[in-house]
Structures
1.
Amino acid sequence: MEDLEETLFEEFENYTYPMDDYSPESDLEGEAPLGMVHWISLGLYCSAFVLGIPGNAIVIWFTGFKWKKTVTTLWFLNLAIADFIFLLFLPLYISYVAMNFHWPFGVWLCKANSFVAQLNMFASVFFLMVISLDRYVHLIHPVIAHRHRTLRNCQIVIVLIWLLASLIGGPSLYFRDTLELNNRTICYQNFHEHDPDLTLMRHHVLTWVKFIIGYLSPLLTMSICYLCLIIKVKKQSILVSNRYSLTILAVVLAFLICWTPYHLFSIWELMIHHSSYFHQVLRAGIPLSTALAFLNSCLNPILYVLISKKFQAHFRSSVAEILKYTLWEVSCSGMVGEQLRNSETKNSCLLETAQ
């Protein structure tokens, strides 16, 4: 147990750094860069939450309730749902970091918080991959798309994506645990308490599974789809919607920019089991790369507004409709109130006359 306590500390996945380096005493002894890094990361977490909750809620409202149900709207609806669910849990993690990595929420929320983060990561990248494949088939193989690109098949794929993302993120529910340490409760990956070799093996396996299935394979698939699409479009002079293609491309690029540092630092973190040479770099890199990954959950709605003219038009018309309805409701309530006051005055006059 003592060996475990000497190596347990984590930010998002599984920090395996010496606990002494993260103690309050070390902060007083000149660990100012660490404090600055965590304040910056906290600012990014809060920005993701403040921008992401209303942004994704608007996208869910449009694609789920206002627009006609199509294959495309279902893809983006589920992408927004994945981000929205993750952001709902983000205040727990913000509190965890703000309280100097003290987790007062219990072991089950520790497990759920990590699981939801993993679910968001895998579901988002799988939906982006499917959107790229769907775009390619729809433009290059219209006959196949007409035959198989149906709402029913789309719903089946959506269910399979959520099940697959849940399955791959499932180990977080099993391995996440809490531990009392230095008068604090930490939420960490408890791969094994007494077997360092088993701990190392499980850490390696889960990190590489995340990288290969949750990043590299989808990245290659999306790159191949867009490369083939560009070649085919130029050769066959296919007319495409530049705005729609640009929206999808921007969403994919945002995902790559936000998640690439996280996966690279996660792999780099494995080296610390064998050498502490990169320790200081990881101390700053992992919190910042994690914060950058979290920001991805609020970027998609912003990109829709900036790029998609259809979204802009629907947004303006919907806001105008809401304002119109609100003003009408206020006006009607005022008229009703005036009628009630007039009615009360009339009744009181009748009573006085009767007396």
Note: The longest strand covers residues 176-181.
2.
Amino acid sequence: MESNCFVLLVEVVNYLVLIICVLVGVAFVTLLERKILGYIQIRKGPNKVGYMGLFQPFSDAVKLFSKEQTMPIMSNFIIYYFCPIFSLFLSLLVWSVLPYDVGLVSFNMSILFFFCCLGMGVYSVMVAGWASNCKYSLLGSLRSVAQTISYEVSLALILLSFIVLLGGFSLELFNKYQNYIWFMFLSLPLSLIWFASCLAETNRTPFDFAEGESELVSGFNTEYSSGGFALIFMAEYSSILFMSVLFVVVFLGSNPCSLVFYLKSMFLAFVFVWVRGTLPRLRYDKLMYLAWKSFLPVSINYLFFFIGVKSLCFVLNL
């Protein structure tokens, strides 16, 4: 009994250390993004606070959490208040699925757990827009929900293809089967579809319709300020980091305990920012056309192809 309690305590401490590292990573990803966008747009990035702007994320955090919190009188206040907290909680909870070898939670149904967290994230955006009792927020949340649900289908079918190929729901299998060749080389179209779908899932350019500033003021978070806005902001960047890490696990096959794994993840985070600095926003009907008429047929065909390959291997083994 005491050993079980000790193991549980170690896992909890390890997870808390992971969360702290993720939050520090989120802070410096914001700095990285502003620096890269400064170079892309040929202007100055943050370079005043500390050496080369290294303390800028912390000064932003102090500013955001010390500002006055606005309280919309007509909002459904309890739900309005807790939605950013729930959003950040989900984006941090999903980090537990990564296949670490150092005592963190690593279970056999991690892919299903990832999809559960991804599906629940839709509700925090939708309810935040509704509870604000603002037309701009509601419109932004509805657009975000339609976009997220559309691209989740492609993500699910791509992972289902690999579930069929690997024969399990654990992310640890991806490390095991990519020792000699990465899945990115075996299925390059799927990796590109996955990356584009990750951009849509995290509401990033060119799919940032939930925060279309030119027509929606600021999207579903129009009525949020101070700490609430900061929590939504942190949840978004935590999701970007996680999607970068998950792309490396699924397609670039590295062990999370190696340095190369983190270099690849940072390169993917850089590509997220690179896309934001170079591509314009799509038209909304083009976004939906891309999801249902382009990505979905390719994902389904690959799923059938992998089922055929697995069946052929099973027959040959017999």
Note: The chain has one domain: 2-315.
